[in-house]
UniProtKB/TrEMBL annotation, chain A:
The chain crosses the membrane at residues 50-77, 98-120, 155-176, 188-213, 225-241, 279-301, 321-344. Its main location: membrane. One of its GO terms (cellular component) is plasma membrane. Keywords: Cell membrane, Membrane, Sugar transport, Transmembrane, Transmembrane helix, Transport. It is found in: Cell membrane. This is Carbohydrate ABC transporter membrane protein 2, cut1 family. One of its GO terms (biological process) is transmembrane transport. InterPro entries: BP-dep_ABC_trans_perm, MetI-like, MetI-like_sf. It holds the Pfam family BPD_transp_1.
From TrEMBL, chain B:
One of its GO terms (cellular component) is plasma membrane. Coiled coil: none annotated. This is Carbohydrate ABC transporter membrane protein 1, cut1 family. It is a multi-pass membrane protein. It is found in: Cell membrane. Belongs to the binding-protein-dependent transport system permease family. Residues 105-316 form the ABC transmembrane type-1 domain. The chain crosses the membrane at residues 32-55, 107-131, 143-171, 191-217, 251-272, 297-321.
Length: 359, 332
């Protein structure tokens, strides 16, 4: 099963559940109403349940008001201002997507000229196409944000973080899961400890880190930053992938060994394909490290290499906060994370059963 | 020439050049070789900066000296060292005799104690609601309610700083005006600002507590619960004598971890008002950061950071010893 099939299966299941749920609920309600009519279900009991559920829904809404509020402000357009309350209330007074247009900018396929030479002949021809514009931002807003540039920087850093981290983590997780070596359990316990205290120690050593990076002249180097993120992602993700690999039965590997496969081939052709879902999970986690980290990034990057979190913060660093623009920027920045998270949530909850050190 | 014969020839050459006992050692420790790259990279960025922080804390490092070209060679850490010179314990003496350091440390501990208490109460409360049989659709609500955990910290913290904006626009001020009071300058008053830090920290961290507590609550024995019900125990009696004992261990575990996170909280005071007003609310990590990057005293900043690490280390050791954290790792 390829990763894509695995993901599409999950998504299909989720969609099916969402579609079928209302019907189920209707049946539940019909059953309850029927029961009350016949006197088998106590109406007082039903009333308590309904009240408790409604109260909980209100409670959940109140808890998430900050997110809802920022959403409302973003929908008020660019000019949501600091000194009027009517544009920042909980009930929207108008809808205006201008702030989102400001964030995204033009949506277009850049024009280009491509020259094609057919080898060993003199035939040369050029294909050119004009810039195809789907949305021209200047029709709606005066200026556009630096979001596309920050986005490219973030993608660049996250990409290399994933590459570096995978090269270090996948072999290590395999060794932890399938091989015996001196100090294995001690290292594993150390890794688990550092998943918790690592972030704190990382902040505490921020002065030294900055000094070292500056002395070596690698501030503002996006690859070095990516390598730093990859290194910091090692403990948690090695442990996570090791836990996943532990759940893969060893019988297939034994069969491959019986057939004379070398240890390398067993790892490459049997264990790795089976571990794909686990690898996909740590891929997400590692990608998000670079996507979300702020403190180190704002310390060592210059404006032309700002990532999205630093760019977001630079919006409010001025005295006058453009709340409408800030909210739209923040939402566009954070929404992919939320979608990924909602999807991956049950696997994360599984990972928190603290059972991963056995074996 | 086939590919495998190339492999064979490489192997022959390898066997010819590398002595047999070295080869045996390599064979024996090969799995370790797979682990080493990650371990070395992690150690490089975790322990080396930490060691360098210790070194800096004994020097008079500041931007004017530390970025100069140093002596080079082995004693100059191969060019890493600048022109800073050793000052012994001077930084530590200066830091420990500075009232702002003790203020910062006091505020940090107060922050840790209050926020952990709030997080535990709030997290367990939500978890109780979210596992109650009375609430329908609680599984879906659970997945919605832990959204704050998924959001990037810089995103949520800047939103909260907008909520506590001193303008009328801020959500906190709108609520206050709605209740009939006049608007407040939340972040200009010391304790108001502190309270807003606490509220934000609680909001950021409750999902973690909820997840841990929910999985602990689901492990509470139903038989024990039913037995207590048959014996006529009321709701609070059951909660105190059946639920609490069985969720105590995992919740303790989560509380210790989240206490460590609160102790090194940096972003909330930094984004809200740089630990203001007048440096009154600088949590310890921010205090060290400000000393280094705002007042250019890298040595003193490093000394503050090392003191913070010492305190958090002592706290963790006591917590592990008292709360038997290691057992928590093996499963509740």
């Amino acid at each position: 099963m390829t990763v894509r099939e695995w993901f599409s299966n999950k998504i299909r299941n989720d969609v099916r559940t969402v579609v079928q749920k209302p019907a189920e609920w209707r049946e539940d309600v019909a059953y309850t109403v029927d029961g009350m009519r016949r006197g088998t279900i106590d109406p007082l009991d039903v009333a308590k349940t309904v009240l408790a559920t409604l109260a909980t829904i209100v409670f959940v809404f109140v808890l998430l008001i900050p997110v809802y509020w920022i959403f409302i402000i973003a929908l008020q357009g660019e000019g949501a201002t600091l000194y009027s309350t009517d544009s920042a209330g909980l009930i929207p007074s108008q809808f205006d997507p201008a702030a989102f247009v400001w964030v995204i900018g033009d949506i277009a396929i850049p024009g280009a000229i491509v020259g094609i030479t057919i080898p060993f002949t003199d035939i040369e021809f050029y294909i050119s196409w004009p810039r195809i514009v789907f949305l021209d931002a200047s029709n709606y807003v005066d200026s556009t944000s630096d979001f596309p540039r920050y986005f490219r920087n973030s993608m660049f850093i996250s990409f290399w973080t994933v590459v570096f981290a995978m090269l270090m983590i996948v072999p290590a997780a395999y060794a932890f899961s399938r091989r015996e070596f001196a100090g294995r359990m001690k290292l594993l316990y150390g890794y688990i400890l550092f998943t918790q205290v690592g972030a704190g120690l990382g902040i505490a050593s921020v002065i030294a880190l900055y000094t070292i990076f500056s002395s070596m002249g690698v501030t503002n180097n996006r690859l070095v930053l990516a390598f730093y993120y990859a290194a910091m992602a090692v403990p948690f993700n090695t442990w996570l992938l090791k836990t996943y690999m532990d759940s893969i039965p060893t019988s297939l590997e034994e069969a491959a060994i019986m057939d004379g496969a070398s240890p390398f081939r067993v790892a490459w052709e049997v264990v790795l394909p089976l571990a794909k879902p686990g690898i996909a999970t740590i891929f997400i986690f590692i990608f998000l490290v670079g996507w979300m980290e702020f403190i180190i990034a704002q310390l060592i990057l210059s404006p032309e290499h700002y990532t999205l979190p630093v760019g977001l913060f630079s919006l409010i660093d001025e005295h006058n906060v453009p709340w409408g623009q800030f909210s739209a920027f923040a939402l566009v920045y954070a929404s992919p994370v939320v979608f990924i998270y909602m999807f991956a949530q049950r696997y994360i909850e599984d990972g928190f059963s603290f059972g991963g050190t056995k074996g | 020439m086939s590919l495998s014969s190339v492999g064979d020839r490489t192997r022959e050459r390898y066997q010819a050049t590398v002595p047999e006992h070295v080869r045996d050692r390599l064979e024996e420790h090969r799995p370790l070789l797979l682990v080493l790259p990650g371990l070395i990279a992690f150690s490089l960025f975790m322990f080396f900066p930490l060691a360098y922080t210790i070194y800096l804390s004994f020097t008079d490092a500041e931007p004017a000296t530390v970025f100069q070209d140093g002596p080079g060679g082995l004693t100059g850490f191969f060019g890493l060292r600048g022109e800073e010179s050793f000052v012994g314990l001077e930084n530590y003496i200066a830091v420990f005799s500075d009232p702002t350091f003790w203020n910062s440390l006091g505020v940090t501990w107060l922050f840790v104690i209050c926020s952990v208490a709030l997080k535990v109460l709030f997290g367990v409360g939500i978890a109780m609601i979210m596992t109650s049989d009375r609430v329908k659709g609680r599984r879906y609500m659970r997945s919605i309610i832990i959204i704050p955990w998924a959001l990037p910290p810089i995103f949520t913290i800047t939103i909260w700083s907008g909520i506590f904006s001193s303008a009328q626009f801020g959500l906190a001020n709108q609520a206050v005006i709605f209740l009939g009071f006049s608007e407040q300058a939340w972040l200009n008053d010391r304790w108001m600002a502190f309270a807003s830090y606490l509220l934000t920290e609680m909001w950021l961290a409750y999902p973690f507590m909820v997840i841990i507590t929910v999985s602990a609550l689901q492990a509470v024995s139903d038989e024990l619960m039913d037995a207590a019900k048959v014996d006529g125990a009321g709701y609070f009696h059951r909660f105190w004598h059946v639920t609490v004992p069985s969720i105590k261990r995992p919740v303790m575990f989560a509380a210790i971890l989240t206490a460590a996170a609160s102790f090194t909280q940096f972003l909330i005071p930094y984004v809200f008002n740089r630990g203001g007003p007048n440096r009154a609310n600088e949590l310890i990590v921010l205090h060290g950061y400000q000393e280094a990057f705002n007042f250019n005293a890298y040595g003193a900043g490093a000394a503050i950071m090392m003191s913070a690490v010492a305190f958090i280390g002592a706290f963790m050791i006591v917590a592990v010893w008292k709360g038997r954290l290691a057992e928590g790792v093996d499963g509740p």
